[in-house]
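Below is a filled-in request sheet from our internal design queue. Each sheet records the structural input a requester submitted and the sequence that came back. We keep these sheets so that new team members can see what a complete request looks like end to end.

REQUESTER: design group, bay 2
PRIORITY: normal
MODE: inverse folding
CHAIN LENGTH: 482
BACKBONE (tokenized):
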């Protein structure tokens, strides 16, 4: 085939709908003659943004297709992978710039994979949140037969590419980014969706600084092809973690763990897990239990930030934040500390005022009675129906005692108590605990940490007088050196 000259290429571009007659004529006026210098013709079109280098390259080859997909004009290829290709594209009708993910042809021969791709893509249509990349449509091109997903285009880049340039992030910026990501996870989790592929490349950072999660719902597709395609490793890390910790696939705490890996790498400039392509090694428990905490000499941040990462990445799932919403609150507490420049006290101080007690109680009537009596006795009282607030408050500013009514707060109350006991020991902070069990929760006694600082009261028959007598016994009012 004879190479095309400028005039022939211009006519091909017009016929394909890439250029108008007027746009081609502008180039001839610039070049000086119709069918003149080809290089100058393309330079003019690209300078005017009538053509992109991607389109110019295909025109030079005489390609007759691959310029449009589902009515969208393909501008250039962003990236390629084992699963497919991603393009920047334009909606000719509105001028909106979008990203289009196109399924590779080799997967189009497998109906099960096509069905899974479409189903998972359509699931993304239901997620509408500022920190999740919006899926606009999932369809099949009638001309080429290609399956594709159209998403909002995020002007910016993914965290891996940005981190490669910057080396590491300052704590304030890293926390803001991860709070955005956690907010996206929290919204998706409220809709019954987990991500299953949290990593640097799936967090996009816009030019305005907003973080957005991408590739929700595609993990099942990757799991299906992963056994046959060596380059597809997206689900291996999750499988290794969940096998090591004994939780089922789909546990949201796995997303929290790997978002912790993202935060660790943003702060430290290096990944916490040993990176390897060996599938067997990636599945080993030792890879997860040998993670080294961030070095305070390398990561200049308050202790609360280091603790945040350690909690997110705890190998024991029960020691992590249990939901993305809890994680968001913990991140916000760290950000407040950074912004104020005042760290939470490590323990009780002489002359620091009244002893503080947090009460986790879901019964509104009991809340009022307990608050009034404890204040009357001289305690500073914090009270919430959600026991998770007790944990957040302790991390922000440790208190002297926790009273948790497990009879009304249930499993959440018992779980939070267990975590605060361990957190108090980690901080070397003296905190007393009063656990009130419901009348049908006798068997739960075995789950309560056995410590001198922990007292258990059992319904029925627990009176307010018994409660405050026990509190005064364990945390005397006016003595901050107990």
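RETURNED SEQUENCE:
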């Amino acid at each position: 085939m004879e190479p095309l000259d400028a005039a022939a290429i211009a006519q091909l571009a017009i016929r394909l709908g890439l250029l108008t007659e007027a746009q081609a004529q502008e180039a001839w006026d610039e070049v000086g003659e119709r069918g003149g210098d080809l290089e100058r013709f393309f330079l003019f079109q690209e300078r005017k943004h009538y053509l992109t280098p991607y389109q110019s390259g295909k025109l030079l080859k005489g390609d007759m297709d691959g310029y449009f997909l589902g009515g969208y004009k393909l501008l250039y290829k962003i990236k390629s992978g084992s699963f497919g290709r991603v393009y920047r594209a334009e909606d000719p009708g509105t001028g909106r710039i979008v990203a289009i993910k196109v399924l590779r042809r080799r997967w189009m021969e497998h109906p099960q994979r096509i069905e899974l791709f479409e189903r998972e893509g359509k699931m993304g249509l239901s997620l509408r949140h500022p920190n999740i990349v919006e899926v606009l449509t999932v369809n099949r091109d009638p001309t080429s037969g290609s399956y594709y997903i159209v998403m909002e285009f995020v002007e910016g880049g993914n965290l891996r590419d940005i981190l490669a340039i910057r080396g590491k992030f300052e704590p304030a910026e890293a926390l803001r980014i991860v709070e955005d990501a956690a907010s996206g996870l929290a919204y998706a989790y409220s809709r019954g969706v987990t991500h299953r592929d949290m990593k640097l490349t799936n967090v996009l950072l816009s030019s305005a600084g907003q973080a957005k999660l991408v590739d929700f719902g595609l993990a099942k597709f990757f799991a299906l092809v992963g056994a046959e395609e060596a380059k597809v490793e997206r689900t291996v890390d999750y499988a290794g973690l969940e096998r090591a910790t004994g939780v089922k696939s789909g546990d949201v705490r796995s997303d929290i763990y790997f978002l912790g890996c993202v935060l660790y790498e943003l702060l430290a400039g290096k990944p916490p897990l040993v990176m390897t392509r060996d599938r067997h090694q990636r599945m080993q428990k030792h890879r997860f239990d040998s993670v080294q905490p961030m070095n305070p000499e390398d990561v200049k941040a308050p202790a609360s930030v280091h603790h945040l990462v350690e909690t997110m990445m705890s190998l024991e799932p029960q020691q992590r934040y249990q939901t993305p919403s809890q994680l968001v609150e913990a991140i916000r507490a760290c950000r407040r500390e950074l912004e104020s420049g005042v760290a939470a006290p490590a323990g009780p101080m002489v002359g620091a005022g009244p002893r503080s007690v947090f009460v986790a109680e879901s019964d509104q009537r009991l809340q009022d009675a307990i608050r009034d009596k404890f204040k009357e006795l001289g305690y500073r009282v914090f009270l919430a129906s959600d026991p998770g607030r007790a944990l957040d408050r302790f991390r922000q500013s440790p208190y002297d005692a926790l009273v948790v009514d497990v009879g009304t707060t249930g499993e959440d109350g018992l779980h939070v108590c267990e975590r605060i006991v361990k957190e108090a020991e980690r901080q070397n902070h003296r905190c007393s605990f009063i656990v009130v069990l419901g009348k049908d929760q006798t068997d739960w006694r075995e789950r309560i940490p056995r410590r001198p600082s922990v007292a258990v009261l059992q319904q029925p028959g627990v009176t307010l007088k018994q409660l405050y007598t026990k509190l005064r016994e364990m945390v005397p009012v006016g003595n901050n050196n107990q």
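SHEET NOTES:
- Residues 406-427 form the longest helix (22 residues).
- The longest strand covers residues 72-80.
FILED BY: M.R.
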